[in-house]
Design a protein that fits this description.
Blueprint (H helix, E strand, L loop, with lengths): L2 H29 L12 H11 L2 H21 L4 H26 L8 H28 L5 H26 L12 H18 L11 H34 L10 H83 L6 H32 L7 E3 L1 H18 L3 E7 L6 E3 L1 H17 L5 E11 L2 E10 L6 H5 L22 H11 L3 E4 L8 E9 L3 H5 L11 E5 L3 H13 L3 E5 L2 H10 L4 E4 L8 H10 L9 E5 L4 H9 L4 E4 L4 H12 L3 H5 L1
Parallel strand pairs: 2-4, 8-9, 8-10, 10-11, 11-12
Antiparallel strand pairs: 1-3, 4-5, 5-7, 6-7
Helix pairs in contact: 1-2, 1-3, 2-3, 2-4, 2-6, 3-4, 4-5, 5-6, 6-8, 6-9, 7-8, 8-9, 9-10, 9-16, 10-14, 11-12, 12-14, 17-18
């Protein structure tokens, strides 16, 4: 708040506290003095201590001086001696100041009395010591002037301690508007509840034999439930004032012979008990509401975090799809035309060697892109396994044949060994297992300059399952313990130095780990022991039944077919047309979806290769339009041919009526396999 608003606030607060001190002091000195002239009800100490805690120091000094002057004057007016008139205010001011000092020490400067433990510390470690010390000092001083030590000590302690216990926490709680946030009620309801408390205080001490003081508890409990801790504190102040007035002024019931001191002490104990009972209830409700608000806030934060994570995941997916498309589109021409040229027999040797270098470079770049996309699928849990009958021996031999040329170029000895029934057919995802082994073998060759690379395949029969174990070892640069510990983490490199000589994304082993675990197996690197590295894999595999093992392979029909090729990129059209011509197909070209629909409506085709991202009408819209033509077009195989190979796009293609997807860049073996599959199937099976 501004300086001017601060002055106004402290002036108003100081004025209210001063007025409350003066009223309570006048009431206590005029109406409740008994036993050596000590007031049996002393509420002013709690008011003054609250002022010292809530006001800045200079305002507190002003409040203390004003209250001392008023109490001193009251004592003189009431006929007390000058010694008494000086002693009582000094002890009262000292008691309040000492209580405030102790309260800050034990509860902290903020004095947040929001829990019972803090309230107990305030009473037990601040109020009790301060009032005990002031009572002891008052008894010592007044004994010098002929007063009874025991009487002064007891009357002072009871009057001041009980008043402080009720008034100080009540004012501190009442001065915190934030405690009402969870208990907002209409103003008329608040006034009605406070009026009920005041009426209970009046009725409870009417001269009747029935114990009407029991009305305190239901009234205060109702306030606690409806208005919370702050409302309970205000109600306690109202109850204390009305009960004090009634105790002093109301006549006793017939047959009751209590003195004023006994009645006031009983009243103070009752008000304190009622206050702390209702305050306990209010604080429990307040804590429950606070925890509920906290839970709601954290739930909202968690939902917001989830929304941000989903948005980030969607943005990542869109980014990967865009980058995949933008990288794969030019790579289609690079890789595809390189493969086409390498099939020519009239190339000079140096040209063939240069094309081979281009082909390897393109394959390396494609491997980087595929690693990123595969890892994204593994992280998102979008990889699905396709178990097929597989003979482990044949799988391993084919995999080793793929990397044999790379090992030969480096002069490495490539070794293969088998243990157990590796000729028994099992059900595994052949492509994914080959991908894992190729990654491990490629790494072994990459990091080995001299010596050998070994692959050991072992099959262990376990009832109707087989445990397939593969062990890849090399004599390369080896691994340090710290590098071995982070190998299976994403973007981790075996050689992460600035001067590293081996490339790669650092995703290959992370992908292998994800795929192996998806198959229910595990992968590990053996502890480093000098040169070389050893990786081990174990994968459970069901044994294929006899019927599955004996099933003959479906014959592949010749690829001579009428194919509609749809692609907006001129280089991609030329490349795909060249590859299809090599495969013996008759090709019709279309530059976008509209031309494709027109061509499909005018003549019959055996298959359509459809690009996805095209101007005017994209591949998804064109596929729906072709299906809507009816007739043979309803069952015509349509294969998406796109650089966007993300799972979301594949799902969108299938939803639009396409049968499968062929990723770019175009590779002759993969395209041949896809065409052979779909041209060789029955039309009704394709439609299904």
């Amino acid at each position: 708040m501004s300086a001017r608003n601060g002055r106004i606030h402290y002036l108003a607060l100081g004025g209210c506290l001063a007025a409350l001190f003066m009223l309570s002091t006048a009431f206590s000195l005029v109406l409740t003095r008994e036993g050596e002239g000590i007031a049996t009800v002393w509420l002013g100490g709690g008011v003054l201590a609250a002022g010292f805690l809530m006001l800045p120091r200079r305002w507190s000094l002003g409040l203390g001086a004003l209250c001392w002057t008023f109490q001193f004057g009251c004592n003189l007016v009431l006929g007390n001696s000058l010694v008494h008139a000086l002693t009582f205010p000094i002890l009262t001011i000292g008691e309040a100041a000492f209580t405030a000092w102790l309260a800050v020490k034990v509860c902290g400067p903020a004095l947040r009395l929001t829990t019972l433990s803090r309230l107990a510390r305030l009473i037990g470690l601040a109020v009790a010591p301060a009032t005990s010390l002031s009572a002891l000092l008052a008894a010592d001083v007044l004994t010098l002037y002929g007063h009874s030590f025991d009487t002064v000590l007891a009357n002072w302690f009871y009057g001041h301690a009980l008043g402080m216990v009720i008034v100080l926490p009540a004012i501190l709680l009442a001065a915190r508007p934030g405690l009402m946030r969870e208990f907002q009620r209409p103003a008329i309801e608040e006034l009605a509840l406070y009026a009920l408390v005041a009426a209970s205080g009046v009725i409870a001490f009417t001269p009747m034999r029935f114990p009407l003081v029991l009305l305190f508890f239901p009234a205060m409990t109702l306030v606690a439930f409806r208005l919370g801790p702050r409302g309970a504190a205000i109600a306690a102040l109202i109850m204390g004032v009305t009960a004090s007035i009634m105790v002093v002024q109301a006549p006793l019931a017939e047959g009751v012979s209590w003195s004023v001191m006994e009645r006031t002490r009983a009243m103070q104990f009752l008000v304190a008990l009622c206050f702390f009972t209702s305050l306990t209830t209010a604080m429990a409700i307040f804590e429950q509401k606070r925890m509920k608000r906290l839970w709601i806030g954290r739930t909202r934060a968690a939902r917001a975090s989830q929304d941000r994570a989903l948005a980030a995941g969607k943005a990542k997916t869109e980014f990967l799809a865009t980058m995949s498309h933008e990288i794969r589109t030019p790579m289609t021409s690079i890789v595809g035309f390189t493969e086409v040229l390498l099939t020519r027999e009239d190339l000079p040797e140096h040209a063939r060697r240069q094309l081979s270098l281009i082909d390897r470079a393109g394959a390396s770049l494609l491997s980087v892109v595929n690693d990123i996309l595969d890892f994204s699928k593994v992280e998102a849990g979008e990889v699905t396994l396709n178990p097929v009958p597989t003979v482990p021996r044949a799988l391993v031999q084919e995999t080793l044949a793929i990397v044999a040329e790379a090992a030969k170029l480096k002069g490495l000895d490539l070794r293969l060994s088998f243990i157990g029934p590796v000729d028994r057919t099992v059900m595994i995802d052949e492509l994914r297992v080959r991908q894992i082994l190729l990654n491990l073998l490629s790494n072994a060759i990459k990091f080995t300059d001299h010596g050998r690379v070994s692959l050991e395949a072992q099959a262990i029969a376990q009832g109707d399952h087989m445990a397939l174990r593969f062990r890849v070892s090399d004599t390369g640069v080896g691994l340090t313990p710290d590098r071995a510990a982070r190998l299976f983490k994403r973007f981790s490199q075996g050689d992460a130095s600035v001067s590293r000589t081996h490339g790669g994304t650092g995703l290959g082993l992370a992908i292998c780990k994800g795929l192996v675990e998806l198959m229910g197996g595990h992968i590990a690197v053996e502890p480093p022991s000098g040169a070389g590295a050893v990786f081990g894999i174990e994968i459970p595999a069901p044994v294929a039944d006899a019927q599955t093992q004996a099933a003959p392979e479906s014959p592949v029909q010749p690829l001579a077919a009428k194919v509609l090729l749809v692609d907006d990129h001129p280089a991609n059209r030329e490349l795909a047309a060249t590859v299809l011509d090599i495969l013996g197909c008759e090709v019709t070209l279309a530059e976008d979806g509209e031309e494709a629909v027109t061509a499909a409506a005018s003549r019959a085709f055996d298959l359509i290769l459809m690009d996805v991202h095209m101007p005017r009408m994209d591949g998804l819209q064109a596929s729906r339009a072709i299906r809507a033509l009816g007739g043979e077009n309803a069952t015509l195989p349509i294969l998406a041919m796109s650089a966007d190979v993300m799972p979301e796009m594949e799902a969108a293609c299938l939803e639009a009526g396409m049968n499968a997807t062929v990723g770019k860049p175009i590779q002759i073996p993969a395209l041949h396999a896809a065409l052979a599959r779909w041209l060789g199937r029955d039309a009704s099976a394709i439609a299904a």
